[in-house]
Structure formats: C-alpha cells, structure tokens
Amino acid sequence: MSKYIFNNLTDDEELNFSEDAEVFIFPTSFAQQRLWFLDQLAPGNPFYNVSTALRLTGSLNFTAFKQTFNEIVSRHEILRTRFVMVQQEPVQAIAAESCANAPSLTIPFPLIDLRNFESQERETQVRRIATAEAQRPFNLTTGPLLRVKLLQLDEVEYVLLLNLHHIVADGWSIGVLIRELGVLYKAFVEDKRASLPKLPIQYADFAQWQREWLQSVGVNGCSPLQTQLAYWQKQLDGISALNLPTDRLRSAIPTYRGAKQFLELPHSLTQALEVLSCKEDVTLFMTMLAAFQTLLYRYTQQEDIVVGSAIANRNRSELEGLIGFFVNSLVLRTDFSGNPTFQELLNRVREVTLEAYTHQDLPFEKLVEELHPERDLSRHPLFQVVFSLQNTPIEALELPRLKLSLFDFDSKIAKIDLEFHLWQDLETLKGEVVYSTDLFDQSTITRMLGHYQILLESIVANPKQRLSDLPLLTKGERQQLLIDWNNAKKSYPDNKCFHQLFEAQVDKNIGATALVFGNQQLSYKELNIRSNQLAHYLKKMGVETESLVGICVKRSPEMIIGLLGILKAGGAYLPLDPSYPQERLNFMLKDAQVSVLLTQEKLLQHFTEFSKPIISIDKDWATITQHSQENPTSCVTLENLAYVIYTSGSTGQPKGVLIEHRGLSNLVAAQIEVFQLQPSNRILQFASLSFDASIFEIVMALGIGATLYLANKECLLPGQSLLQLLREKAITHVTLPPAVLAVLPTESLPALQTIISAGESCYEDIVKRWWNSKRSFFNAYGPTEATVWSTVAEIKSVSEKPPIGRPIANTEIYILDKHLQLVPIGILGELYIGGEGLARGYLNCPELTAKKFFSNPFNSKKGARLYKTGDLARYRPDGNIEFLGRIDNQLKIRGFRIELSEIEIVISQHNNVQEAVVIAQGNLYDNKRLVAYIVSKSPPDKTIIELREFLKEKLPEYMIPTAFVMLDSLPLTANGKVDRYALKAVDTVSHSIDKAFIAPRTPIELTLAKIWAEVLNVENVGIHDNFFDLGGNSLLAVRLLDQINKQFECNLPLSNLFLNQTIESLEIALNSQTYSLSRSSLVPIQTNGSNPPFFCVHPIFGVVFPYYELAHQLGINQPFYGLQPIGIDGETPLNRIEDMASHYIKALRSVQPKGPYFLGGWSFGGWVAFEMAQQLQNSGEEVALLAVLDTIAPIKSNLPSFSNTLKFILTTVVPYMWPFFLDYLRLITAPSKNQINSLTSRLTNFMKLVRYSFWESLTRYFQREPLTRSLQTNLSLHFIQKEDTTVNLISEKSKLRLLSESAIIPMLRVFYANSQAVINYVPQVYPKRINLFRTKVQLNIAEGETSMGWDQLAMGGTEIHHIPGNHLTMLRKPHIQILAAQLRACIEKAHLK
C-alpha cells in the first residue's frame, strides 16, 4: 500500500490526533475533493448521505450481526477514514492499526424496540426514523462516516438502517457491503472463519493511483487527462442549461428538500422495448435514455438536451470488491435539431453514449474545474437532470434463518432538480423519480411519469415517427385541454351588431344618462339622436358597408357620437390619435385608404395633405343636425368590418387589425355575463380611442344601458387627479393597466365595485393593493387581433401570480409547441386563439395575415381559424392559464434562458420598490446585459444597495441586473402601458457598474484585495473583479474564506463567496454579518430536533421567558426560537409592526434561510407574527403555519377602551403574574436539585444584578423587608416542586439574553413603542388560514366573535382551538399542556402537507 506518514504538521493545521499518534495521510480522490468542498459550502448538510434500509425477517443473532459490521469496518479502511485540512488541502486521515491509540473497530450499533406500537403506527415510526436517520448529517472531520441502526418491529422482524456519507461509499458499495454481510454473518453464526479473500488494495491506493495515472505522459506525448479533457471540451462546447418548466421560481440557494415517486411499466411494454433495442442494435439503456431525453425535448422545446448519468467507474477487477466513492458522472449531450424520427435519434444517442464510455475516466470534478461553467449555487454544474438504468436484477439475500429484502422509504432529500432511476426487476421495468420540492409539485411529477409511459408506448408502436408527432398526452388530458377547458360555446339570441344593441338600450332606457363629460350630460335618447344625424350625414358623404372612416377627435361627447355615427352609417372607424407623430398619422391614412375623415376644427392642422372629404364635427354641426333623427337603415351584418386599430409592427411600421362586428357583439355579451353589469353602473372611459381598450369600456356601458364617464387627459393622470375623479363620480367599474394601478393611491373608494386589470402582466403586489372582500378584481388578457380580450380571471387569492383565467364566451384557447402540438399542463407553449372574436386579418398585409391566422387543426367547423399570439403561457392544474410574457421577451445570457418578467416580479417584491421594469441592452449575441428601471419608495442609493442584497437571496447571479436606474415614474405609452422603447433611451451610464479597474477604497476592501491577490497569485485585484473569472476554483475558494475568517475573526460561510463574487459585494456581506452577530433578536430556546423550527414573537412588554415552558411541552424534537425586540437591552425600539416583522424575518433567516416557516406569537406578538407571515408570503416564501395565541385581530372594532384595559390588568394580569416572576428567576439561575440551597444565598446578589429592574421596583413598592425572606422561602419550595427539564433547555447564552429582560426602563420603552405600533398598524388581508388558540376569558370587545375578528383578515379562514384558563394562565400548567398538544398537532399537520 502506497502510504506515507505526515509528521510535520504546522501549528494551525486541523488534525486533532494526540502528539504520539502515527497518522497515515492520503490524498483525496478527485471525487472526494469535490464532495468535501460541497460539505464546506453547506456545512452539516445531509445531501450526500447514501441511505439504505433492509427488512430482516426471521431469527436474528444480534451479537453475530454486530461482529459482522465491525469486521466490515476492519476490512475497509475507507470506513475508518476522516477528512481534514493539511497545508490547506483536504486529505484522508487514517490512524495506524498498530498504533496504541488507533480508533476502535467497534462501531455504535443501537437497537430500538418498536414492539409496543400498534402495527400501523409501528410502520409509520419506522419510516419516520429512517427518514430522520437519512437526514442526519455526518461530520467529515470527526467521523465515523458509517452509521448502523437496528429497529425491532416484533420477535421475528427487524429493519436495518445503513447510512454512509457519499465521500466513502457509492451505490455499488452498498452491494459490496450487503454481500460481505451475508458471508460474514453466516460465519459468525456458525462460529467459522469467514471465506472472504483479503482485499488486494484499499480505496486510498486508488485515489493515489488515479492522480498519478491521469497525469502520466503516454507515448503520444499526452496524458490521459489531456486526451480525455480535449474530447469533453469539444463535446460540451456551448452547452446550454436545461430550462425544465418548474412550479416555483428557482431560489438563489436550494434547500435540497426532495420527494420521490415510483413507476412500473407493464410487462408487455418492457418486452416491446427490449425487442426494439435489439432490432436497432442499441442497449436498453440507450433506448430508455433516448425516450427520456425526448420527453425533456418536448417539455422544453430545446434542441440541445443534456442529462447526467452515473457510471460505476470500476473497470479494473481490483476495484470491484471495494467500498468507496468510485462512481463518475458522464455528461450525455444529444442534438435534437431537425426534429428527427425516434430511429434517427437512437443512432445519435448510441454515438454519444459510446463516446462517453470511451472517455469515462476523466473525473467529473476535473471536468467542472477545467470547463469553468457559470458559478451558480442554484444549479448543479453542467446538468440538472440525472438518468440511470440498473439492469442487474436484485436478488433476495438469504442468511442463516434470516431473509433480507429492501425496505423502501423516502429520505426527502434531492441533490439535483430531477433524478430518473430505472431498474429491471424480474419481468418488468421499474423506476423511481427523486425530485426537488423547491421546484416541483407532486402532481407535476405524477403527470411526467404518465407522459413518459405514453411516450414509450408511442415509440414501440411506431419508432419511425417524428419526435414532435409522438403522442404524449393521455386521452383524459386531451379531453381536458381540447374540450373541458375550451367549453365556452354560448348562443346569444339577439345576433345584433353593437350599434343595434345600443339602439335597443335606447328603447329601454330612453331618459337614462348615457354619457357624462365634466358638466355635460347626454341621455340615451339625446346620444342616439345626435349619432343618427351624423350617420345620415356620413351616408350622404358616401359612407357605406366596409367604408373606412377616420376619426380624430379629442376626449369629448363628440368622440362617442362620432364612433356611433360611423357604425350606424355602416362604416368602420379608424381611430387617429392627435398626439401621434405626423408621419405616423400620414402613413395610417394612406395605408387604410380612408374615405372620409371625421375630426374637430382645431385638429385640422394635422390633415393638410389629406385629399378626401373632411368633416369637422364641431364646425359642421349645424349642417349635420339638419339630417334625420331616426335610426338609419343599413345592410351591416356581423361579418362586416367594425373598426381598424393600428398596432406596433415588427417591421417598424404599424399594422392595421381588421375587427368585425361579430367579435364586438360577442364582447358585449361576454362582458355582461362576466362582470354582471347593470344599467345602474357607472363606467370610466380611461383608454385612448387609438387603443382597443377604449371600445371595451364604451360597449361595456352602452351595451347594458349604464353610464359612460369621459374626462380630459389631465383628470386621468394616475395620481390624485384620477383618484378624485373616481371618488367624485362614484365610478363602479374601471379598466386600468397594471402600470396605472401600481402608482394610483389606494385610498377609500367605496363605490368602486369592479377593477379590471388589462393591457399587460398583472402581478401579486397590484392585486394586494386593490383587492378587498367587497370588490371584484379581474385580470383580463387578449390581443387586439382577438377583439380586445380572450380570457379573464376573477382573482380571489393574493398568494400567487394572478392567472389570466379561462376563455371568454365563444373563444377557444390552445397552448401549443412549435410543431403545433398540445403541451401538457404546466409546460410552456405559445398561446393560440380561436373563436368569434378573431380579427379578419391585417390590412394590406396578406403574407402576415397568412402567417398569423391559419386553419384551426382542432376544430372541424368550416372556416375555423387560429391566431398565433407570440405570447408564452401554460395551463395550471386547475385549468387557469398563466401568462409568461412574450416569446421575443426571452433572452439568453451566458447560456441561461431568462424571462425578464420573472426578474421584474422578484424585484417588485422588495418593500421599497414601487414599480420595476427590466430590459436587455447591448449586443444581441455576446455583450447583453440586464438593466432594471426602478420607481422607489425610499432614497435611491439606499434602495440599490438593499436591492442587490435582496436579489442575491432570490435569484442566480446571471439574473441580477448589472445596472439599476432610479426614476420618479416609468414612462407610459398613450395606451397606459410601460414604454420600453423610451426606457432604452434613458442614460444609464451614471447608474451602471463600471467594469473598469477600480482599486480598493476602504480598509476592508484593501485587506480583502491583498488576500485575493495572495490566494489567486495575481498582482492587482479591483473591487469589481470576479473571483472565479480571475482563476478561482473550489479549492481556492475554501482557502480564501479560511484566510478571510481568520483575518476578520468571523465565520462567513463558503456560500457567501458564491453569492458575492466581487470584493465590493463581499465587503457588504462582511459588514452585514458583523452587525447580525453583534445583535440578533433571535433567542434560541430549544435548538434540537428534526422538525422545522417554530418562531414565537414576544408579547407587548418584549419578554420571551414565558415561552420556555411551552418549548419544553412541545418536546425535544421541536426546535423553538423566541423573538426579542430591539430596545430590550437599551437601544431605541422599533415602533412600527411592519419594521419589526422585517427585522425578525432577517433574524430567523439566519437559522432557516428558506420556508416553509412556522410562526406564532402570544398577545401582541400575534400581530407581529401575522405581519411576518404577510411579508414572507409577499416575498414568495411559504408560511406553513401561523399560530396566534389569544390575540385579538388588528381591526378597528377591537381597539380596547381605557376602562377595558384597566379592568383586564386588575382582574387578569396582577393576580396571575407572580408565578411568571418565579419562573423567570428559576430560569436565569438554572439550578439543579442540589443547587437550591445555594440559590437562596445568591438571591441578594441577584437583586443587585437587576438593579432598576421591574422586580426591584415591585419590592420598593411594597417597601417590606420580609418580602425578600418570604421570596427566598417560596423560591425553595417552588424549585423543589418544579422539574429540571425545562431549565435544562436553556443555554448560557440564552440566560444572558434573559437577563436583559429584567431592566424596567428599556422594558417600558419597548411597551410604549409597541403600543404606538398597535395604534398605527393597518393590516392587509392574509391569503391563507390562521390558527387561533384562544381562551374564554377575554376583553368585552372580543366576547361576541369566536374568531376574535380574524375571519375578517384571513382569506383561508380561521381554525379555532379552545384553551382553558385566561390570557396568562394558558401559558402555565396544567393549561399549557393542552396548548402544547394542540399546537404540536397543528405543526405536524402543516409539516405533512
């Protein structure tokens, strides 16, 4: 064995062996080095645990079993290996077996007896323990890296839990271990010598050999490393990340939480796949891989599909019997260009796979180091999906009087986005999918497994089909997508054009007000007469069916009269906005061949070159009124043209969209149905007439007999002007773009019944601003080409991005891939629209019309067409559609596909951001950068700094904008949408990060630069230089952080370097950690346990000591943290609940960076916990449980009067506070049973310690010396009667934190600040359920409401738990035991969900 002894360790090395220990030091293998680094990156993680469970049935010889495992550990050095740093390199360290202080070969072998549990509960306990063991981390430095645990279920049934760290074992190793278990156990039972041959080498030999062999130069002058690396560099050049659609946004740092699902293919399908593989001269693995990559191709529509696949890497006989980490990862990249047949794809996969096998010796870790992919903690390097096929049947292992079989359980860990593992089990193929629950829902993976099976069946049925034509969906899914969710067919009996529907309303509501503009009003009768007169005049001027009449009129009643007059005359109107550039107006008039122009005298200057008839509706009104007041007769039908709207064109010139009367009439009917319109409604006309939203508003009012309110441009500016208009006119219905809703003040508008958001993407924060239980909020979607709108959703939840809903009446929606195939639920595709609202096409653009409008392949009706929107969307499982932006709004940066809307959503979640737009600037191919335009609520400089840190927690580095431009407001188009072209013209130079060299400016930056220069071996380092771009790698990152932590005496985690790759950002992280270490509001009460931690906020005085008993009662498996206020130790306290919540969230994230979170609070603390839950939900985190302990809801009717408060203090607080005082003293002095006597002697000193404390104040108040002696006596009795368990929960650090709760002056300041916070707090509606734990004894204000007012704030309702006692005694025995039991049940229930 190639061993060497390292005896000259330097003073700062991390080996902890005694001085006389003979320690064997070995280099790590490349694979071990990477796993060691990953452990440094996320210390104490269980992600790389290799876990197996075996069910043992029969008579077990426990002694022989223990001997067996100890012998296995003795045989395999790797199981006795630890990993330490020597000369800033990780190494394997093994104590010599001959050494006197060599480690014992006896490993712990606990036996847990579960026989007392009922059968069903016993199985539950086994799975719980197995999962907990699999999630228990290993310490690579101290070892051991093998854990064995035996669970006894009954007299003849056991479950063996085996857990090893991946750094010492792989999947093959488990097989080796089990085989040796069989041989050795049999020998020990029969008291014979085992027949296992001596191992020829140990893993450490392999690690040494691997390094030497890879770098040895062959006869061709190249080393294996160089040869294989050259292949992989060529093969993986320009590799793209797989953009697999997910249910949730990818966070900057994954939690590695996972789940698994299983698959079993029918025997007939398995046989057919084997036959196909044989026929095509490929292995079954290649066939299954090709099918799996086809599934990914269909899901992502990417032609460059990359998956990882494990290979045993034991291609030498000496390695086959070793336990160790040999497995290597191969990157299998397949080209899907040209939409090949499956047969053609198989040939490509065969070639790729065989070449990969030929070059399998290059360690994946070395490949990553050499290829230098984008450093991103949120993704596995080079691939995010893994595929494998184990084709060796698993045989049941027979031991003497004992049978072994696999016991399946879920470790709930996912190292990567998706793992797809198949194996052959006798006559069928079975599979297991392990997936990240950060990204995927259970239902998504279930659908994926179904699609894989359908795809396999399609392949064996016809492998010569093109990949795009292979069926993917089940019959049920096709029924759902084509029929169930497209069942919007409605028959409207009127069958009339809009102007005819208006005339019908005139007959019904002849005297009703139709139109209001300032002080002007027109009744339905008056509006009809004037539009009739104009219609007759237009007909006289030659207007007839299909005639195009231009209308350029400022906001006024004349605009509506003109529009109705044109339609009544049989013509179609073309809106011309007088604010448009003259060149654009001239183009539209010429392109549309307008026959007549209707305008106003003051606008004639725009049309000096127009040669056709011009009517000035104001100047010529006297002439117009000479014509008939009766409804004109015309031959207009639903197939005739109603209007033409010009929209932006990709050629640089606008294009005219031709809309027919059928679509307009359908629009009216659908609006009445969806919005439940009534003649009493008052509807605002906000949009410019040149924007099709204007006709949406006009027909909404005039089609039902309601009143349409017009206003001049100044009154419609988003701000106080618009708000005043809405309030004064008592508007009931508005249609506004999100950009306007985002800045419009959310003041009281009691008359406003319905808000329709339309025109662009609507985000959660806009819904939260405007939604309430007395108002309807709709999100509408539709292009101009489909008569304004096509889908609509009524938003009833504020917890997620608003969907665009389902198709409106007589509309069909299809989400298709680029080959016009239906995409499954959750998969991105292009949105196509069919139905009665479809435009005729584009004016004078036959080629574009043919490209965008074509025959509907899903509808056999003659003439049925589809419109290609260019919009990305996907179906949600409930049938609602989620809009995902424009296809052309996607871009790639450094190989990653990016949705700009995703970045905008995350930026908008920051508390100081009012609005955000992100655009890409720079060269299309290699110099593209992201620029964010922000409207801030706070000083710009502060916002940018905060925003950068905020985004680092939310987004990968490549998605964070390089520049932030702060604006007072976002520029809007005439239609109210964000003007992205105007944004591109804004000068961003002064706001951008200067990529030129900038020397360190502060002492910290200077120190960091020196460390970087030393570690990277470079001369100069600027504050914007990227560590990895300068040559940094994983090992150098560890060295760098080690030096930084020593220099600054801090404990910055390695992950911080990946989140802060420049000196400038790293300095911010250092300063942030220094601050958080100096003062945290988090008080650890119980830190042990595998359950998610419960965070409980202080009551109004700021103390958390009452929570210690609750933590004890919840049990040792429930971590519990109290949240203490700023100010309890003398600082200035916060006086806004929103600020407290934000501060506490930062504190709890130091313990739990990602959700789901479990929050609670007693009394006042319930309000803060409620606000914390709101902010976490708003930031995209999940709150699994919100528990309020005897807290009234923060609503106006609950604010107590002075008399009620005084009564509560005298009847509840004063009589029941003394036991809490005794508990407080007991906790901070923390006696054991033999310390009680010394406690009373220390009481005097303690009283000195808490001078000016609340308790001393009480002593002075009573002014009785006997109180101290009485207190000493009572304390002794109190402590003798108390158990010590609760006391043992508390750490020394927490005792010091508790001492701060004894100072009266800071406590009163906190009380005052919290009281102010109560008065000023304005709550928002919470989108989920609230759990209320309440007592019967309440202030009068809450007596009549069982939910204590929370039902008014909880969209998900209030779950009420009744606790005996009063507001104080609920936290003391015996009542606290009931509280704890109910709270524990709620935590477990939420955790299971």
From TrEMBL:
InterPro entries: AA_adenyl_dom (IPR010071), AB_hydrolase_fold (IPR029058), ACP-like_sf (IPR036736), AMP-bd_C (IPR025110), AMP-bd_C_sf (IPR045851), AMP-binding_CS (IPR020845), AMP-dep_synth/lig_dom (IPR000873), CAT-like_dom_sf (IPR023213). Residues 999-1074 form the Carrier domain. One of its GO terms (cellular component) is cytosol. Its cofactor is pantetheine 4'-phosphate. Pfam families: AMP-binding, AMP-binding_C, Condensation, PP-binding, Thioesterase. Belongs to the ATP-dependent AMP-binding enzyme family. PANTHER family: FATTY ACID SYNTHASE, NONRIBOSOMAL PEPTIDE SYNTHETASE. This is Amino acid adenylation domain-containing protein. It comes from Komarekiella delphini-convector SJRDD-AB1. The lineage of its organism: Bacteria, Bacillati, Cyanobacteriota, Cyanophyceae, Nostocales.
